[in-house]
Amino acid sequence: MSEPTTRAVLRQAVPPVRRLLPAILLGVLSAASSVALLACSAWLIVRAAEQPPILYLSVAVVGVRAFALGRASFRYLERIAGHDASFRQLAAIRSGVYERLLPFAPDGLAATRRGDLLARFVGDVDDLQMVALRVVQPLVSAGVVLVLAIAGVWLIAPASGAALAGCLVVGVAAALALQRVAARRAERELAPLRGRLQAAIVDHLQAIDVLVAFDAADSSARRIDEFGERLARTARRRSLAAGGAAAVMAAIAGIAAAASAAAGAPVLADGRITGPAFAVLALVPLAIAEVAAAVPVAVAAARQAGASARRVAEAVPAVVPPELSAMIAASEAPAGATPDEMDPAAPGTGGVRPPTIRLRGVGAAWPAVNGIAAGAALSHVDLDLAPGERVLLRGASGAGKTTLAHVLVRFLAGTGSYRIDGVEAAELDPARVRRRIGLVEQRPWIFDEDLRQNLLFARDTASDDELLAVLGQVGLADWARERGGLDAPVGERGALVSGGQAQRIALARALLAEFPVLVLDEPTANVDAAQAAAVLDELMRAAARDGRSVLLISHVDVDPSIIDRVVEIDAGRTAPAAPGSRAARPVR
Ligand SMILES: Nc1ncnc2c1ncn2[C@@H]1O[C@H](COP(=O)(O)OP(=O)(O)OP(=O)(O)O)[C@@H](O)[C@H]1O
User: Fold this and answer.
1) Which of 95, 292, 406, 539 has a CA positioned 20 to 30 A from the CA of residue 533?
2) For residue 348, what is the DSSP state?
3) CA 366 / ligand 1 centre spacing (Å)
4) What ipTM, to 2 d.p.?
């Protein structure tokens, strides 16, 4: 997977010609109407002062009205067409970034700051709309109108045309230079600063309990204030520069009008042009300079969009680290492994068909964080899990139990041989493996939604009765009833439920998803020792229903009656399995 460069992101932000062309044409019509309005008005006022028969003025009167209406209407339509084209493009960019992110989830994103990622996803992608709306379209429209308008002035009086063009070139160059000196840094810093502010706010909100407990909420809030002030200062610097550039262009408009009039005066004196035509020479440069003022604004917007495009391009690392499982296209599934063989029984049927799992000499490492590799967390694991078997994986803290769980669900790639029903897992799409093997994590993620939503995402077709039944299986039926049923809120990251209840909710959704194999990672880690045995007993009975295979991960012993075998893991190693045998000693 190659990293999109900043240039590629910018190119991607430009809508296809067929979508952008209407906006460009409407922009040309709107800017041309502005120039024509002033030309027509100037001509009309001076010609009217000559008091000709009204008939001589009527075309110009209609012209003034038409151009005034046209300017506003074309501008309105241009905005609609431009935004439509640009927003469609943004949707494609946003889903593109998301798709590139997927292969990294979850273990490749552990070190990514969520707030910053959110800022890149939302703010920076939004900024890319500037490429079409404030850069490409205004530049092309302004370019066309400027050439036509200057050519028109040139036709009336070449000297005025030359004076006007010269003034505009100098004016635009001066405005660009001013902006470059005063705001180039600000334009590039805006997007990263916005990301840092958002990351600080997200961190603050997510960790508010720890911050309050350590009396550190104020200093965290002060940090947010500091970022906010820096962002405001930077935005102010940029706005000042934009204001300065606009002032330069306003001054240039006056100078250009004077220069055009001065250059046209001899032509008027010669009688080669009429008084009304001279008025056009004197006043039209004001409207033309207004069109030219779009150029410095577009260049500043281009710099700002460039900074955002860089952040979007960098949002996802260039290559998927070898420690993570790569996605495999369906077409690359091994011959003979039909979808039926690789998928669980259809949800809702209650039937599960556990596969035979066999690991030999499996090793694994976590992806490097900030370029620092962590070293192997697993060095040699042999493990068998027969259909319907309940195996305890036991080992001290840090022995590699969670790492092995992540290998089993293919969050981590691992080395050695990991076969599911005889097929190497590396040859299967990780998503398919995850449809057969479900992980109930040590710290399950609980959504800040009601109980129903926390279960439904595992099987969105489940009825309320099915949800209540599964809550009953994990021992939460009474509790749910007391809390008001499936509408009960569970709080941000399960703040309104106990650790043990969170674990049960997580198991309930794993049961709903009907994984044929369940991996339970320390399901009683958050339950006090007195209750742990009873809770584990209940959870194991629920998990092992319908003939599921269960791998129970624990750093302590469990009641032998709830498991069939024990596999010991120590410093990333299990006892090697004898050829053709199971890799563990029987419990009973
Ligand atoms: N996301 C991660 N990134 C880098 N290293 C990690 C990550 N998670 C765990 N490790 C490291 O991998 C090794 C094995 O950790 P693992 O979590 O698999 O142990 P465990 O047996 O599950 O421990 P516990 O019982 O405390 O949960 C440890 O050295 C740990 O520091």
Assistant:
1) 406
2) T
3) 9
4) 0.94
